[in-house]
Design a protein that fits this description.
By secondary structure, the chain is an alpha/beta fold. Among the domains are: about 230 residues, 3-Layer(aba) Sandwich (Rossmann fold); about 70 residues, Serine Threonine Protein Phosphatase 5, Tetratricopeptide repeat; about 90 residues, Serine Threonine Protein Phosphatase 5, Tetratricopeptide repeat (Alpha Horseshoe), CATH 1.25.40. About 60% of the residues lie in helices and about 5% in strands. It has 32 helices and six strands. Strands 1, 2, 3, 4, 5 and 6 form a six-stranded mixed β-sheet that branches. The radius of gyration is 28 Å and the shape is elongated.
């Protein structure tokens, strides 16, 4: 098992003091698992311990950027490193003879097929691994950090914990590590991350308090990393950004920190700052595909389509055989309303890999055509998508057609098709599909104003749900389909249903939707604002459209306008249960926000909404607003 925080902030980040930034162009070196040639199973932990400690001590090397690659066998690690554009590896062996422990380490250049550096150090078996790793690190780079663990017992227990297969196995190992060394910062960090991953907030808070009580006995860099975990515990993006900034100062030149800072800036919708941090990360890791992809999206959110496309074209050059660069390019074109180009790029992505994301690239091509107002042409593309899914033996074909029909104004057909689909499966091993279908129909019935019918369907969905995700959807649907009530009563219901403070983000999400379905727009607006501010922005997230809806219905149309300027992109898994709250409503809202284009948007809204109006009365308002 890899603890989530160790994936997010690998071992190479645990430098203990400030140091000069590595020179531009310094190569990345993947630190691979060592081989245990001692013949002693009790020393097997050193396979992971040696590269971990070298990563720690070489974190601020001026010669190269160490990159920890964990949790895989040696050949898989090599493949992973090469896939990330890393062509130099540090690896080695641990052996023993005559009461001596020996550590051999080499730096290999895979392109030149040559060893470019090597060290060999020995010491008493009784002294253990840590002094050997320290000596090897200093031979590889004279400016290597001191090693942070204070005892071999603590270090070996820590390695056992982060390499464990389950949280149940990891926890006692980390407890032993802290018992052996109460000032072992990395062990606190791993234990807090594990508690957060298990959503054990009380344990995470207790461990953070224990760690902070050690004060300056913990390395400054470990204190900064613990501050990051505290910010995550408190759901405080500003505090997380401050802690990451402090960590960046302590570990200059680390692309992972810049990437993390970009993530926080993206979450708080500071697009210029996010782009700056991504560019810094790219300067350290030129051509990194994930960074180029992220930069492309951030530049799109910042309103710079040409710069966004340039970054994504560079991503495409880095990964020419993969469909994802084309899918990202297509999404950016769709986001900015370049619909024909978007459709063509989605088709190119589908041609590269028809199974990529379950073939949804062809569905997004259909959406691109739909936004031009060409429903007939969009249906043709959608039918191509269905045929591809039929060839893939997709059991959800009728469900997918029903979703498409509902979102394109054929609501009665969609309701009938979804009911037939659910009835066919409700007594089969695929009853969770039936539960999901009944829940979706319940939400559609709410939109149509049939609350009593919706409540019956929601109960049916709950009775069929077996998988946890399906039970969650059914429970949410039952809540949303509750009896009509005032906004205050809806809030009281939400507090009773979700009393745990840790559930507050979920409560905000569910309550805001309940208020929208009930037409309590004034009460919904601050919750929708909070949900929008806290959510990671994506072109497919309907949060901005739902907030714009509440703003428009409460007379704040100028505030709504920027939220609906760009198109929504179909989620990569296809429509989600609340997609119909945002689409095609976005065109009605655009008509309100941009009077000079109102007729075009009203007509497109009516065309896509179809003959069966929703309970909110927007179809009638659109017809009245059109010229006679």
């Amino acid at each position: 098992m890899k603890l989530p925080g160790l994936i997010f902030l690998p071992a190479a980040l645990v430098a203990v003091s400030c140091s000069p930034k590595p020179p531009a162009g310094a190569p990345r070196v993947a630190i691979l698992r060592f081989e245990n040639l001692t013949g002693d199973p009790s020393m097997r932990w050193m396979e992971r311990g040696a590269p971990h400690q070298l990563s720690v001590q070489l974190a601020a090397s001026k010669r190269f950027h160490p990159v920890a690659v964990m949790g895989l066998d040696l050949s898989a690690q090599r493949a992973q490193a090469l896939a990330g554009g890393i062509t130099r590896f540090l690896h080695g062996q641990i052996s023993q003879a005559g009461g001596k422990l020996r550590l051999n380490a080499v730096i290999e250049d895979a392109v030149q097929r040559a060893f470019i550096d090597s060290v060999e150090v020995t010491g008493p078996v009784a002294a253990g691994l840590l002094p050997l790793a320290d000596a090897a690190a200093r031979r590889l780079d004279a400016d290597a950090r001191p090693y942070g663990a204070h005892s071999q017992a603590a270090f070996s227990a820590y390695i056992e914990g982060i390499d464990a297969g389950t949280p149940a196995a990891a926890t006692p190992a980390l407890v032993r590590a802290l018992a052996a060394d109460p000032d072992f910062g990395e062990a606190y960090i791993a234990a807090v991350e594990l508690a957060l991953a298990r959503q054990d907030r009380a344990t995470a808070a207790r461990l953070l308090a224990q760690a902070r009580a050690r004060g300056a006995a913990l390395a400054e860099v470990d204190r900064a990393r613990l501050d990051i975990q505290a910010a995550l515990l408190d759901s405080d993006p500003a505090a997380r950004f401050r802690a990451l900034t402090a960590l960046a100062r302590l570990t200059p030149g680390d692309a992972n920190i810049e990437r993390a800072l970009a993530d926080v800036a993206t979450q708080t919708k500071q697009w210029s700052a996010a782009a700056e941090h991504l560019r810094k990360a790219l300067a350290l890791q030129p051509g990194d595909p994930a960074l180029l992809n992220s930069l492309g999206y951030v530049l799109a959110y910042a309103g710079s389509p040409d710069a966004s496309i340039a970054a994504l074209r560079e991503y495409e050059r880095a990964r020419p055989a993969e469909p994802n660069p084309l899918d990202s390019l297509a999404e950016v074109h769709l986001y900015f309303g370049r619909l024909r180009e978007a459709e063509d790029l989605f088709r190119q992505a589908f041609q590269k890999d028809a199974n990529f994301l379950g073939g949804v690239t062809l569905l997004k091509a259909a959406q691109s055509r739909l936004l031009t107002g060409d429903l007939t042409g969009a249906d043709i593309v959608f039918n191509e998508y269905l045929e591809a899914r039929r060839q893939a033996n997709d059991p959800l074909l009728d469900y997918r057609r029903a979703e498409w029909e509902y979102l394109t104004g054929r609501r009665k057909d969609a309701l009938e098709r979804l009911t037939i689909f659910a009835q066919r499966l409700e007594k089969s091993p695929q009853r969770d599909f039936a539960s999901h279908a009944y829940a979706q129909r319940a939400l559609w019935e709410l939109e149509l104003g049939n609350r009593a019918q919706a409540a019956l369907l929601a109960r049916k969905a709950a009775s069929l749900a077996t998988a946890q995700a399906t039970r969650n959807l059914a429970a949410t649907t039952q809540f949303l389909c509750g009896p009509e009530a005032t906004a205050a009563e809806w809030s009281a219901r939400a507090n009773r249903a979700l009393p745990d403070p840790a559930q507050t983000p979920l409560k905000i999400l569910i309550l805001s939707r309940a208020l929208l379905y009930a037409g309590h727009f004034e009460a919904a607006e601050p919750l929708l604002r909070q949900a929008y501010d806290q959510a990671m922005f994506t072109p497919s997230d309907p949060a901005r459209v739902l907030l714009a809806w509440a703003l428009a219905e409460t007379g704040k149309i100028p505030q709504a306008a920027p939220l609906i300027e760009r198109n929504l992109v179909m989620p990569s898994a296809g429509p989600e249960p609340f997609s119909s709250l945002a689409f095609p409503r976005i065109f009605f809202l655009r008509a309100l926000a941009a009077p000079q284009e109102s007729e075009q948007n009203y007509r497109l809204f009516l065309h896509l909404s179809g003959p069966t109006p929703l309970r909110f009365g927007e179809e009638e308002r659109a017809r009245k607003a059109l010229p006679k």
